[in-house]
Amino acid sequence: MTYVSYLKTPIGFLRILSNGFGITDIRFMDFDGPEEPDRHTESAKTQLREYFEGIRTTFDLELDPEGTEFESSVWKKLLLIPSGSTTTYGTIAKELGDTSYSQAVGHANGKNPIAVVIPCHRVIGSNNKLVGYAGGMERKEWLLKHEGALLL
Q1: Cα torsion through 17, 19, 25, 29, rounded to 10
Q2: pTM to 2 decimals?
Q3: Which of 120, 123, 143, 144 is catalytic?
Q4: Does 120 qualify as catalytic in the annotation?
Q5: What domains lie within the chain, and their CATH numbers?
Q6: What is the mean predicted confidence (pLDDT) over 126-141?
Q7: What pLDDT digit, counting tens, does each position of 21-61 carry?
Q8: Which pairing describes strands 123-124 and 87-88: parallel, antiparallel, or unpaired?
């Protein structure tokens, strides 16, 4: 069974999905829909609301994203990037053991199914430019400004 909650944010709706064991998907949407929540989606909704209100910088949620072993290893690295900070694809590749993994890291970053909580928006290009974000570049810029990582 899939459970669902929606949260209206300053940059669109978030659809939050759970499989009953943990959060499987959080993504930006331009609309909301019918809800069938469980404890995981409602906890995520509460914590995300606090994040957007500026009173939370970390999350304490059970996550259950589906991905390859490599994608999962990248997503685990993303969880270590503190709020208010950024890193690069190359830095993550180096942490994974090979700087030639940069493109693969970018691909895994783009497949992150749990927006905001697994903070793929905190990864920028090696030239410190904002590059790629499945939720849209305007949202990436907003999130980084909200966290104080982008002072433009």
Answers
A1: -20
A2: 0.93
A3: 120
A4: yes
A5: 3-52 (3.30.160), 69-146 (1.10.10.10)
A6: 85
A7: 999 999 999 999 999 999 999 999 999 999 999 999 999 99
A8: parallel
